[in-house]
Amino acid sequence: MKAASVGGSTARLGLLLVFAPFFLWIALLVIIPHIDLLILSLREKVAPRVYQAGFGNYMQFFGERVYVMALLRTFLMSVTATAITLAVAFPIAYYIAKIARGKTRNILFLACLLPFWVSELVRVFGWMILLRETGVLSSLLVSMGVLTQPVEFLYNDVIVMVGLVYTSILFMVVPLISSLDSLDDSMIEAGYDLGGNSLTILREIVVPHAMPGIVAGCIVVFMLSLGNYLTPALLGGKSGQWFTSQIYTQFITRFNWEVGSAFGFVLLLTSSLVVWLGLRLTGQTLSSTLGRG
């Protein structure tokens, strides 16, 4: 009995040591900063260096139309970017998971990973080099006679959307491949044997089986798009009007950390609500989605 007790204590100590870095990371970089931000967001400035508890910082968000419209625009653009990313990533993931074999499969997956070997900042600057007025695309079209003078392709919603899809597509492809990989090919063959066509099999077999991967990918891409700052700011310019730019302005430009914290929690609550609604509408749970995605 004593030996078994010592063995159990050793196992618990080993488990604690293994997960200690993870718990420290969660506590120091996620939980404690968010608690601090929550406290800051509830501190209402009534005079220089005089604060009182209240929801005035949150009321400032609802009282200014520009903030509400910025959040609504960010939400709609993020939903659109998620839908486009899913439409682009699904055929890619299906080809890699079910059609490609051997080296071709590995090369295609590596091609998806390759752009993510550099930071998001470098990737966005790559788009700027291509699309600015004196960039590669404009110069090429002028030299071919398609354009009479250089054109600025940056700083509009279309380019922001392209940038969001490009920077987050891998996070849709990976969970989709993981889900589709577990789909037994015999189920697809049985579908054809029973008289189904490609559209029927896609709707009745492939999509239901891949639903956990679809939901997991949509959650990650939506949250990445909603909280993105670099891509909308650099590709959209001043017309970007992304909500994270409003948060940046409050923290960095106006040094108003109380309002910036409140805006950050409004964004967090919005993303959490959308994820919850998405899980309810698709009949998925977070644990099952993350487990299979």
Automatic annotation (TrEMBL):
Keyword Transport: yes
Biological processes, Gene Ontology terms: transmembrane transport
GO cellular component term of the entry, any: plasma membrane
Residue stretches spanning the membrane: 12-35, 75-96, 108-130, 153-177, 213-235, 255-279
Keywords: Cell membrane, Membrane, Transmembrane, Transmembrane helix, Transport
Domain of life of the source: Bacteria
Protein name per the record: Spermidine/putrescine ABC transporter permease
Similarity comment text for this entry: Belongs to the binding-protein-dependent transport system permease family. CysTW subfamily.
Coiled coil regions in record: none
Pfam family, one: BPD_transp_1
Keyword Ubl conjugation assigned: no
Membrane topology listed for this record: Multi-pass membrane protein
Alphabetized CDD domains for the sequence: TM_PBP2
InterPro entries registered for this protein in UniProt: MetI-like (IPR000515), MetI-like_sf (IPR035906)
Domain ABC transmembrane type-1 intervals: 71-278
SUPFAM superfamilies to which the protein is assigned, alphabetical: MetI-like (SSF161098)
Subcellular location: Cell membrane
Predominant location: membrane
Gene3D superfamilies recorded: MetI-like
